[in-house]
Amino acid sequence: MRTYGVAVHGAGWVAAEHVRAFAAHPQARVTVISSRRAESARRVAAETGQTHAAVETDLDAVLQRPDVDVVAICTPHDLHPANTIAAAAAGKHVLIEKPAALDLDSLHAMRTAVQAAGVQSVVSFVLRWNPLFDLVKAQLANGALGRLFMAEVDYVHGLGPWYAQYAWSRTAAQGRSSFLNAGCHAVDALRYFTDSDITEVSAYAVSGSDRFEYPGTTVMICTFANGALGKALSNLDDDAPYKFRISLYGDRGTMLDNRIFSQTVRGQTDYAEIPTVLPDSGDVSHHPFRGQAAHLLDCIERGQESHVSLANSVNTHEACLAADLSAARGRPVALPLA
Ligand SMILES: NC(=O)c1ccc[n+]([C@@H]2O[C@H](COP(=O)([O-])OP(=O)(O)OC[C@H]3O[C@@H](n4cnc5c(N)ncnc54)[C@H](OP(=O)(O)O)[C@@H]3O)[C@@H](O)[C@H]2O)c1
């Protein structure tokens, strides 16, 4: 059984969870933790019990190491494109934290670099490994909802000074917009559930607080290639507990989070609740990073592209960029973006 060496780059809040996730996998060994400051990498190594890992401050030095096969990119959003392009050029597989990029040119350049290098990629839409997501996909696959014609996902996550990355992600330069900064999880969920690409986006934005250099709340309505409609909300202005709400409407049934009403169940008179783990926390220690790490290693082992590869995720990011354009221009924006 081959063991893969993993470098985790950008030793902040989420990095520790990637270290834990890879360290727990029988085919992975965290060989390097790197960051702008060595003390941050050392802190994450100590916190996660991975003190054998080398500490680096220079990504190029990390990428030259033969004991690194995979790089988990956990730096602030604006650094993801350059980090990804460098890692792919060095022949390393990449796990890219979301958002992959903040602008179209960078997004496309990353996709080209990953494809040219022939490495595997996963964009960290980690909720795809949440048990409710599994439950929804299973109900869709077994026909309990029939043909899905409308999907809604609301990402409600009040961010402020209490949040580790707030100092930089509140800025337009490094956070950019509500959907790109965080609500992209909702857009990815819409695409995962509808199993289709977004073709047009209309959006409105509002500042519900004075905490961001951009409107903290944006809502988008979108069309899908398969004819379905979608709605996604990204609300970072909220001051209430985190919520990730899912409503799916099909021609044979409806799902509201983990409650389902299906015409395929004879005699059902009201929604039935299925106990599961809900995506009801914004805390990274609650997120299923182990499932995601195992999936990337499995893709590498089999030489198979992920269902949430960078190439797959381009449509999600273009939809977020289109929402910002639509809200600014006051008209619908068609995808793919030119
Ligand atoms: N998928 C999810 O659910 C999820 C959850 C949380 C975060 N994220 C994503 O993960 C990324 C990081 O977020 P975070 O909350 O972990 O932020 P964070 O706590 O601020 O960590 C980012 C780290 O990057 C390092 N860094 C900054 N500039 C750097 C540079 N030029 N070179 C190398 N390292 C640099 C900083 O390390 P130093 O201390 O060394 O300066 C900082 O500790 C973001 O893109 C975010 O969207 C995703």
What does this entry look like structurally?
The chain is globular, with a radius of gyration of 20 Å. The protein starts with a strand and ends with a strand. Helices cover 34% and strands 24% of the residues. The protein has a 9-stranded mixed beta sheet with strand order 14-13-12-11-7-10-9-8-15, covered by helices on one side. It has 2 domains: 4-126 and 301-308, 3-Layer(aba) Sandwich (Rossmann fold), CATH 3.40.50; 127-288 and 316-334, 2-Layer Sandwich (Dihydrodipicolinate Reductase, domain 2), CATH 3.30.360.10. The longest helix has 20 residues, at 310-329. The chain is built from 10 helices and 15 strands. The chain is α/β, with parallel strands linked by helices and 338 residues long. Helix 1 packs across helix 2 and helix 4 (80-89) runs parallel beside helix 5. NADP nicotinamide-adenine-dinucleotide phosphate (NAP) binds at residues 10-15, 35-37, 40, 74-77, 79, 97-98, 124, 126, 164-165, 284, 287. NADP nicotinamide-adenine-dinucleotide phosphate binds at residues 10-15, 35-37, 40, 74-77, 79, 97-98, 124, 126, 164-165, 284, 287.
Which SSEs are present, and which pair or pack?
Layout: E1 4-9, H1 15-23, E2 28-34, H2 38-48, E3 54-56, H3 59-63, E4 70-73, H4 80-89, E5 93-96, H5 104-117, E6 121-123, H6 131-141, E7 148-156, H7 166-169, H8 178-194, E8 198-206, E9 217-224, E10 229-235, E11 243-250, E12 253-256, E13 259-262, E14 272-273, H9 289-302, H10 310-329, E15 333-334
Parallel strand pairs: 1-2, 1-4, 2-3, 4-5, 5-6, 7-10
Antiparallel strand pairs: 7-11, 8-9, 8-15, 9-10, 11-12, 12-13, 13-14
Helix pairs in contact: 1-2, 1-9, 4-5, 5-10, 8-10
Bound molecules: NADP nicotinamide-adenine-dinucleotide phosphate (NAP).
